[in-house]
Write a structure and sequence with these properties.
Length: about 70
């Protein structure tokens, strides 16, 4: 199944936020599914990160590298 994640789902998944329903987390982690992220979500995350409204345990550059193959 193809899963297109919105910005909140991406952020909640990478930060292990409890706002992400367990069912969705399981679907994202299922290697049989293709997980996709919009360039708009990456842009939005970049803006939030640069103005201090998004804190991550990894650098934004590292995150973008991890998501490279999932970007639409």
């Amino acid at each position: 199944m193809d899963l297109l994640l919105d910005t909140h789902a991406v952020i909640w998944f990478i930060t292990d936020d409890k706002k992400l329903p367990e069912k969705i987390k399981t679907q994202i982690e299922n290697t049989k599914n293709d997980v996709l992220v919009s360039m708009v979500s990456l842009w939005e995350m970049s803006v939030k990160y640069s103005i201090g409204k998004l804190e991550l345990d990894i650098t934004l550059r590292r995150l973008l590298g991890l998501l490279r193959n999932q970007v639409l």
